[in-house]
Design goal:
Blueprint lengths: L2 E6 L7 H14 L4 E6 L13 H5 L8 H10 L2 E7 L7 H9 L8 E10 L6 H14 L3 E11 L12 H11 L2
Parallel strand pairs: 1-2, 1-3, 3-4, 4-5
Length: 177
């Protein structure tokens, strides 16, 4: 049994990336894994100040939930990011979150990583370009490997994911972590 943490970054209610994250969760739980979804919409994270307080004291000086969330990530076996694709990149809230991991990034290690992306483009290219940003983050971590991607392409309107073949695919990828 694995501990899974899914970070969702869409602020849109019932967004396609969130729908796919919930399907991934159901798949992972169906094989006995424990899954926690952490919404950046519900856990607003302030931007990094670049003050380096965290590098001296081991945690961020800002009083939001970043330290608590990072401790959950450090403790998990599988980390998942779910994001809509904006201009061929990840959402601003996810990029901001990645920047704030600086407080404890050296402790994030030995994990499997999955990415769930959604976009209106029917090509995987847009999501692949977003993943490039995430790969830059993964390259800074010790033994955190990209194991799979849920490509939610051609999803324009809220709820489109529920009627797309990727809906089942998200469950299957979650099931097989």
């Amino acid at each position: 049994m694995k501990k899974v943490v899914i970070i969702t970054s869409s602020y849109r209610e019932n967004s396609n990336s969130n729908v796919l994250a919930k399907q991934f969760q159901k798949g992972a739980e169906s094989t006995g894994n424990t899954v926690e979804i952490i919404s950046l919409k519900e856990n607003r994270i302030a931007p990094c100040l670049g003050c380096n307080f965290c590098q001296i004291h081991g945690e961020c000086t800002l009083k939001d939930k970043i330290n608590e969330i990072l401790d959950k990530i450090i403790d998990c076996d599988v980390l998942v990011f779910a994001s809509p694709t904006y201009y061929y990149s990840i959402s601003g809230s996810l990029k901001n979150f990645i920047d704030r991991t600086y407080a404890k990034f050296r402790k994030i290690k030995n994990k499997d990583f999955y990415y769930i992306g959604s976009c209106s483009d029917t090509s995987k290219d847009g999501i692949d370009r977003a993943i490039d940003t995430v790969k830059g983050f993964l390259d800074c971590l010790d033994n955190v490997k990209l194991k799979g991607v849920v490509y939610g392409t051609g999803l324009t309107d809220v709820g489109d994911a529920k009627y797309s073949p990727v809906f089942k695919k998200a469950f299957e990828i979650g099931k097989n972590i």
